[in-house]
Amino acid sequence: MRIPIHFIIPFLLLGQIGLAQTAVSLKVPMEREIWHGNIDKQQKRVIQLNNQGKISADTTISLQILDALQRGVDELQAQVEMDSTLKSNDKVRYLRSIEILLRGYTGSLNRRDFPASLAPALIKAFSQCIELDKQNKSFATVIENNDYGVAKLLLDCFKQYLDSNPGMVASRTMLMRKYLTLHPEMIMPELAKNPNAPFADSLIKVALSTDIRKVYDYAQAKNALSERIRNHSDSAVQLVARIAASKSGQLYFPFLDNLLRGNITLGAIDSVKDNELSYFRLMVKTRIEYVQRSLPPYNETANQMQALVEMMSRKARDYFIREINALHSVSNENVRFKRLEGLTAQELYYLAVLGENEIYTSSYTRGVYPRIWQRMAHPRGDSLIMSVNGDYFRKFIKMAAGYNELNDFLGRMDKQNAETMMKAFVIGLEKPRKMNDLEDAVDVADSYSSIMDKNKELAAFILNEVNVSHIKNVQDNNKRGMVIYNLLRILFESADTTKKVDLSTLLGIPSIYGKDYSNLTDDSGRVVQQVFFYGDEDKDGQHSYVSFMSLFRGKPGWRVDERKPEWTTITSTKGKPVLIFANKPLYGEDDPDDKAQNKLIEYMQGRDLTPTMVVHRGHSYHLPTTLRKLPESARIVVLGSCGGYNNLNEVLTACPDAHIISSKQVGTMNVNDPILQAINERLLTGRNIDWINMWRELSRKFATGAAKEKFDDYIPPYKNLGAIFIKAYRKAMGE
Q: How far is the C-alpha of 580 from the C-alpha of 552, rounded, in Å?
């Protein structure tokens, strides 16, 4: 056999690179022809990939790669074959390693950590390793001197035929270190497999700087790695290990940045962690401090800021808001709002903005909001916002607008400051607080209809600022900013009903004013609904279920089947086919609601019963469970609890085409049931859902008194500007 040695001669022909070949006369014994042939096949595969444009779009780079993988590999073959010091078996070992090397290169081509351009370095390093291996010397220095991609491909091709090299063990350790340096998020999982790695201590310190929570989680275990973390020489690692060993570890995490800086001690946290008021107070103080450090000239990001916010939100809901919500029927305000005693204006402020998804209207308007001003020596709106360094100020303004307190809030400052405040409310939305975060923009969108209803002059001011910001982002060629402000402009102009703005056409999204009946039926012409109920200690979910079932039990046109222990099936007996599946609210240990819902979902999926309408009935703290189980098929989603940004975002992520009915507060069965009844009346007759007309009819039922106030908290799909904004933004950004 002759071994062809390819010299690359570039020429352009129909956009491809050609190869000229010469040959060197070299006799190859028959027993090794197959191995040379296998290498040649892999080289042809490389040429094929290049001609398909999969190597590199840059001609210069692709020529260098092909030179290495054609001429360079041919030279390797010749060196092996002509080496008189090698026995036939050794030559086969090296030839097979070359074939595996080429397979590895094409198999990982242009994947993460494996750019096509590593080919020249790969072939050079392979040649160096072979020369060292011939002398039975370690090739570890070659592995050390090359990037991870090259080192990984080399060791993958050596593990079968060169595993006996004295540098193999050290090289594997080096490879692991290279990988973890590139991917620090994998440090702890990999060290858990190899806790005695000689470089473990240095990598644990790297992991601490990238993901403290992960180090904390691994330190909690009782194994060799957790022992290594506890015995680490670094003081920061030792601190995290101490926190992990404590039963109160989660209570320390919100203060981790200050703990690491030495600004607070574990003892200081211990002195307040068992007192809900004192602990919440320390968190508020810490949050205000962290936010101040995030502003110029410091521009620092506190470690575990999210852990602080999550714990503040949890304490705000669990200890304060749910207590005053539960006492909503108590007329004596001193009794109902006793838990708010001792809270400062700033602490009440954070209760409001972090409890948005659960706070009742009366809890806000009669409890938290007025007490903010009562606790201030000089009750000025601008002073309040400055005292919290502007933290969540858009959320606070949105809530004030939604609960008809915005005029009061703005009236508590000079007119010029009020204008500055509202300008700040609108501008800068192109700069998210978090990656791809839309929450601030959605808060602005959500607030506008309330502002338009109560203060048209202020609404005009906001619309003008939106137009100014849109022009600025056009000039800056900021796509995110252009999209956000163009959408806000369109949404705000639509709030003026005299302009008759067609949002669906302008935003390029399906109609928000209704759902065609045909869009809600399955292939068999049925409308399938799923209702999520939850059993509660206070029997709220059980009462809600009884109220819901009264719409169907014994009513003409409906058949109710409650024989299943986990769920009820409701079927229409006249008109169009409608099937409603509702899990029974089951209270007890091991979350029987979750098991019942999962069993129902499995039953429906097994019978091709695809729900196009989903209803959540339950407290806000049950909503995350419903959101996790939302089917993509849902076209109407009724949230019997608050539809804040995070909830709307999750619904539209799971069900992009959904129309969402949500409430500003926790829902009530006295409103939920009439809404569901109105929808089902239309479905039974095969009519399209016209939200505007349906809402007009419902408004007549809730014309006066407390019933009107509760109904007014519900937002129909065509007025749900937050949901409309999210849909339109994703459409405009191509998401």
A: 10
